[in-house]
Fold this protein.
Amino acid sequence: MEAWIGIAGTVVAALLAFIFGRVNLSRASDHERSEALRRQRLNVFGSFCAAIVQYRRALLHRWYEGSQDGMPDPAAAISPELEDQVRASRADAWAAYYQMLMLTDDQALTDDARQVLRLTRAMKNAQTAGDVEMASNAVHAALDAFAKRCQPRVASDT
C-alpha cells in the first residue's frame, strides 16, 4: 500500500510539475512573442521615419538643383539620376508605410503616417525657397509628432 501511495505521490508531483511548467512556458512564450512584436514595431516605425527623412532630403535636393536664384525653373534639366533617387526614396517611404500598416491597428498612428507622406509629397510643389523650407519644416514637425505617437507602442516594459 505504501508503494502505491509513493507512486501516486510521484505521479501527482510529476503531473503538477508538468502543468506548472506548461503555464510558465506559456507565459514565457507570450512574453517572447510580445517582445518580438515590440522589437519589430521599433524597427519598422524607425525605418518609416528614416525613409521619410531620405525622401524629404531627395526632394530638397531636387528642388534646389532645379531652381535658379531660389526660384524653380520648370525647364531645368534635372538629371535622370536625381529623378531616380527621388523615385527610389518615395518607394522606400511607401514600403515602410505598408510594413507599419501591417504591424499596428492604431488608426490615429496610420493616419499620422499618411499625413507625413502627403506633406512630404507636397514639397515638390514649392515655388520659392521660403515655400520649400516651410514645407520641409512641416514634414519635420509631422514626423516628430508621428515618432512621439509611436513611442508607447515600442517603449520597453522596464
